[in-house]
Structures are given as C-alpha cells and as structure tokens.
C-alpha cells in the first residue's frame, strides 16, 4: 500500500527537490513584469511572463535596495536568482537577487533620453555656468561620509589650501533612496550663506552604481543651486547627467578638490614677489611724497606772512615806544601848566583869604551871610575858617 503524505510533507519534499537541483539555484530568466507590488516592508512581489507561461517572483528588500531603476508593469527585464517553493501557498517561485532592464542598452537609452531632454530645456547651456571662486573660505561637500572619495577630497584640500574650511553633507550615493538624499544635502548646503563652493562627488563604479547621478531631480537641484557646483563623480571615463548640469565637471573626486582651491605652494613665490613689489612701490611713493613735502615747505616759507608780521610787530613796538614817550612828555607839560594854574588860582582862592584870618559865615539854608540883615538872633550859623568849620548861635545883631 502506498504511503499517505500530508500536504505539508509533500510540499516540503517538492521544495527539497528544487533545492538539491543546482541548476535551479542559479538561474537567469527574462520576461515582462506584471502584477508588480512594492510592499510596505520594501520587498518586491511580481510575475514574469512570456507568450507561453508565467513565473511568480519575489525580491527581498536588501536586494531591491540595489536596483538602479524603478520596475513597473510591462517592463522587459532580466532576473537572476534561485527557484524554490513557497510552502504556504504551494507554488514555486523565483527568489530574485538581481533585476535589470533587458540589456545594458536600455540604461544607455534612458541616459541619452534624459540628457537630450535636459539639454533641450537649457540646463547644459554654458550661459548658466557660474564661475568657481578663486579663493574660497568654505566648501560644502555632498558625498558618502565613509567613502574613499571623501578622504581623497579632504587630503587634496589640506595639501593644496589648508586655509579653507569644509562642511560635509553626508548622503547615500547609490540605491533607490540616494537621489532624494543627494537633493536634500545639496539644498541644505545651498541654503547657507557661508558656503562659497559645493562639491558633489562619488568614487568610480558601473553605470548602475552611478545611476543616482543620472536622476532628473538631482540634475535640476544642481541647476537651481545659487552656489557654484563642481561635480566629481566616477573615473575619468565616466560621465553622468550631473556632470553636464554642474558649473564645472571634474574627472574624479580628487580632481574636483584640485579645481575648487588654488595650490598655496604655487602662490607663495607669487605672493612674495607681489609683496616685494608692493614694498618697493610704497617706498617710492613715500620718497616722492617726502620730496613734495620738502618743496611745499620751502614754498610756504617763501610765501609765508611771518617775515612781514615780524617787521610789523617791530614797527608797532617802535611806534608804541614813541607814543609812550610823547604821552609822557605831554603829561609832564600839562602837569606843569596845571601847577602854574593852581598857583594862580590859589592867589584868588577864598581859602587863601581865610588863611589870613577871614571866615565865611553861612546860614541854616547854606547861603553866605553877607549882611546882619541876613540873619536873626538865635539863628544857627556855620562858620568856615581856613582849616575847617564850626557852628555858632546869633545872640545879638548890630548894623555898622
């Protein structure tokens, strides 16, 4: 009697048969995508079909993160992976590790289509290219924080121009999420006022590895940047859309750093020569100004009113002396005349008469008493003599 298997046992046996067949553990298939679903978990579920059959497929999130394009229903693709059985539903399916458009020509065609589209829109026009500052103070760098490209850039900057400051905006440079992060990092740096130049960089790789820099959103973000952008992505033979849009394309990340800053070693002898020339020019100008000052001082002394002022001051001193002498003499003459006049007046002065024993009598009203009739008995009189005055009272009066 045949053994009776459970569904689970039979399905597990079939799965083991698939897995022990080495040819089914590394298969490559091509077909058209249908029923494409991207789960919240990031896993991809879809069906590959051709004219005669269809194959269910699943791609885990870790593998899907490496895709360089966005799969859609109707896309013709090639897939690598292994065949196994999903026991819960009892179906066999392809567990895809790699998925890409049929042939590398599809990526190239997508590249050329976008390149032509952006060129027609004027994003590559040299008229829009900004000049790169010759002596930047701070450079912003958009790249992966742990990439060798960043170390190369920093080494070149330290060697050539250690005066420059660096601000790094770390970002993914590969994978589905890289374009959005590159745009965000670029816009963050471009929004600052202390940045002079922005470098967008990534090391070399395949066309798929560099595909994030062929993203239209990245290209338009570079074109819209207010600060000049240097693009150093890949190796010398690699070209991306970002290279065409950037203000300056560098063949490598290290070359981008070299183009962003001057070589201080080359400028040192130039600066020394300029310093020596400046010193010589300043000395010549100083000597010229000193000679001009000397000439002006001589002309000033010649035109100065000082000599005339000195002469006038001396003339004033002489005139003052003569005037003083003349005034003194005039004063002496007037004093002599006054003395003579005083002597003459003294002879006629009533004081002289008083000194001979005469007196002047005044009544209470101050009038001079000239007659007995000018006073009365009991009147108070003032008698002035040569050396003063005294009062008297009339006792009696008699006319002569």
What descriptors fit this protein?
5 domains; rod-shaped; OB fold (Dihydrolipoamide Acetyltransferase, E2P); five-stranded mixed beta barrel; Rossmann fold; single chain; 400 residues; 13 strands; five-stranded parallel β-sheet; alpha/beta
| Poorly predicted parts | none
Biggest beta-sheet profile: 5 strands, mixed, barrel
Question: Total helix count?
Answer: 11
Assign an overall shape: rod-shaped
**SSE string:** HEEEHEEHEHEHEHEHEHHHHEEE
**Helix coverage percent of residues?**
40-55%
The CATH H-level superfamily of the largest domain is: Succinyl-CoA synthetase domains
- Order the strands across the largest sheet as they lie in space: 1-2-3-5-4
Question: Averaging pLDDT over every residue, what do you get?
Answer: 86
What is the count of β-strands? Answer: 13
Instruction: Determine the N-to-C terminus distance.
Output: 210 Å
Strand content: 15-25%
């Amino acid at each position: 009697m045949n053994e009776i298997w459970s569904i689970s046992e039979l399905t597990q046996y079939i799965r083991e048969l698939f897995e022990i067949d080495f040819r089914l553990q590394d298969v490559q298939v091509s077909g058209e995508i249908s029923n494409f679903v991207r789960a919240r978990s990031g896993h991809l579920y879809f069906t590959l079909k051709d004219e005669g059959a269809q194959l269910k497929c699943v791609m885990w999130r870790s593998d899907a993160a490496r895709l360089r394009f966005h799969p859609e229903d109707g896309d013709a693709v090639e897939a690598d992976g292994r065949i196994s059985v999903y026991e819960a539903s009892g179906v066999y399916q392809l567990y895809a590790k790699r998925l890409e458009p049929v042939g590398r020509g599809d990526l190239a065609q997508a590249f050329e289509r976008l390149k032509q589209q952006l060129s027609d829109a004027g994003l590559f026009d040299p008229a829009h290219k900004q000049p790169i500052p010759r002596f930047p103070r701070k450079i912003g760098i958009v790249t992966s924080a742990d990439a060798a490209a960043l170390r190369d850039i920093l080494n070149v900057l330290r060697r050539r121009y250690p005066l420059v400051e660096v601000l790094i905006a770390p970002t993914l440079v590969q994978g589905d999420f890289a374009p959005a992060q590159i745009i965000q990092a670029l816009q963050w740096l471009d929004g600052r006022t202390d940045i002079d130049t922005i470098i967008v960089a990534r090391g070399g790789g395949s066309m798929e590895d560099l595909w994030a820099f062929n993203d239209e959103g990245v290209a338009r973000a570079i074109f819209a940047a207010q600060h000049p952008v240097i693009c150093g992505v890949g190796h010398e033979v690699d070209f991306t859309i970002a290279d065409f849009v950037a203000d300056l394309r560098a063949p490598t990340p290290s070359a981008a750093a070299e183009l962003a800053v001057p070589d201080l070693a080359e400028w040192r002898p130039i600066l020394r020569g300029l310093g020596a020339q400046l010193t010589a020019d300043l000395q010549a100008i100083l000597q010229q100004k000193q000679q001009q000052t000397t000439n002006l001082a001589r002309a000033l002394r010649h035109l100065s009113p000082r000599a005339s002022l000195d002469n006038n001051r001396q003339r004033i001193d002489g005139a003052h002396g003569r005037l003083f002498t003349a005034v003194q003499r005039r004063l002496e003459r007037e004093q002599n005349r006054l003395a003579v006049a005083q002597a003459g007046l003294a002879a006629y002065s009533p004081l002289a008469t008083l000194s001979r024993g005469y007196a002047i009598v005044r009544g209470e009203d101050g009038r001079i008493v000239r007659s007995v009739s000018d006073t009365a008995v009991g009147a108070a009189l003032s008698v002035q003599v040569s050396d003063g005055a005294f009062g008297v009272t009339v006792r009696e009066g008699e006319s002569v």
